Amino acid sequence: MEDQKKRILLVEDDPNFGTVLKDYLMMNDYEVTHAKNGMEGFEKFKKDDFDLCILDVMMPYKDGFTLAKEIREKNTDVPIIFLTAKTMKEDVLRGYKVGADDYLNKPFDSEVLLMKIKAIIQRKATETISDSKQFEFKIGSFDLNSKLRFLRFKGGEPVKLSPKENELLRLLALHENDLMPRELALTKIWRDDNYFTSRSMDVYIAKLRKYLKLDEKVEILNIHGEGFRLVVNT
Amino acid sequence: MEDQKKRILLVEDDPNFGTVLKDYLMMNDYEVTHAKNGMEGFEKFKKDDFDLCILDVMMPYKDGFTLAKEIREKNTDVPIIFLTAKTMKEDVLRGYKVGADDYLNKPFDSEVLLMKIKAIIQRKATETISDSKQFEFKIGSFDLNSKLRFLRFKGGEPVKLSPKENELLRLLALHENDLMPRELALTKIWRDDNYFTSRSMDVYIAKLRKYLKLDEKVEILNIHGEGFRLVVNT
DNA sequence: TCTCCTTTTAACCTTACATTAACAAAAATG
DNA sequence: CATTTTTGTTAATGTAAGGTTAAAAGGAGA
């Protein structure tokens, strides 16, 4: 399915190797963001959600370990793979210390890298998300459970939401009574901001409005040229 | 949890290397059982509970992969590390397919091995919290005993479940009323996530639904693109 | 070998989703 | 006020995922 491609942040300063690796990963159905150095890597990391980070150790200005430490401060869960130039024991040990999930010595076999990526991402997937609270929203008389993807009105029969309906409503709920910029939804949910995705989003707004009609206190307002606002009147 | 020493099963046919490695691990506070070949390895595995298996790939009579497969049939969770003589890509890939957690190329640095052991055992420990050793479930009017692989309706005649039926239902039961991601079942039970294993899983869902029809309060719901949900209506 | 049991693969069908088109209605622009 | 841009809404289309049954393939034991 298109929108569940795993996202990889690749930080590698060697432009040749970097682009080749990026292309190779993309050919294997990963969505890859390539940063050319540690700084850029951290900037890109903050901007997006990634399923995996692949960091070159040897980089000017900011090496892979330092970057990994910064990443760990932001996110304790995201898997990290280090690329080390040679079998430097200290590097490997240091890597594990920063919370690496694996490391690979250059030159490495690309298929092996793929295997590792697969194994690591799958491993993370098996770690169950226990804090359900994060997925539950109250919207007027509605309960939205965005993990199980349903919307329930006053404890009645829950209505199933499609992935896009669900994500959009969740994003609106996160900004309840506040502006939810079009651009935000388009980049976060559709991952692309163009005429068609924009129209697609409008279609979904219409669908959500239909669901939410049951509670006349709840409505989605448009702010022309800006975005939408989910309001709950009291 | 346990302040107990972690137990390692080491299967290595080279007597010199084997004993040295065993001693080294014991010096680092692991309890090590050393088997000299695949047969012996499997015998010892059946007799005891281990926290980790370290298997040499190249062994007479029964190689490490075959042994791993047998071990996996008994225990889907125990971490496995392979020792491969050289960087054989096929070996590495085959290892991952059997559910290896990692591999090391001989000769390897002993400290690196220690690091890996630590990381893997640590990882499993956190995983096991949510995925506790539980084998008996009440599902509506059903009793599932996943150790003996049977499902009983209201104390009647138990129905025997096949291994896959059993594991799948168990996984669903562990997540009762919650999402059981497709990916989770595929990686945990099928150890591979592709079109065919996915379809195979759907077939098993159909089988389970047939069994569960006896109790109209119990159903397996699908969450499109995400997974399944075993719900028990009250 | 021939069973029996389990699992995978195939086939066919249904449902779920996302996108695009089409046209209507507001809102902005100038 | 005429025109362009943005949004509202419904419907049509194409594709992917899931439901179900049956046949084929594998595998262990007799």
Automatic annotation (TrEMBL), chains A, B:
Where does the Response regulatory domain start and stop, copy by copy? 7-121
Q: Which residues carry this modification: 4-aspartylphosphate?
A: 56
Does the record bear Repeat in its keywords? no
Q: Fetch the Gene3D superfamilies from UniProt.
A: 3.40.50.2300, Winged helix-like DNA-binding domain superfamily/Winged helix DNA-binding domain
Instruction: One Pfam family, please name it.
Output: Trans_reg_C
This protein's source sits in the domain of life called Bacteria
Residue ranges the UniProt entry marks as DNA-binding: 134-232
Q: Where is the OmpR/PhoB-type domain?
A: 134-232
**PANTHER family for this protein:** PHOSPHATE REGULON TRANSCRIPTIONAL REGULATORY PROTEIN PHOB, REGULATOR OF RPOS
Q: Can you name this protein?
A: Response regulator transcription factor
Record organism? Flavivirga algicola
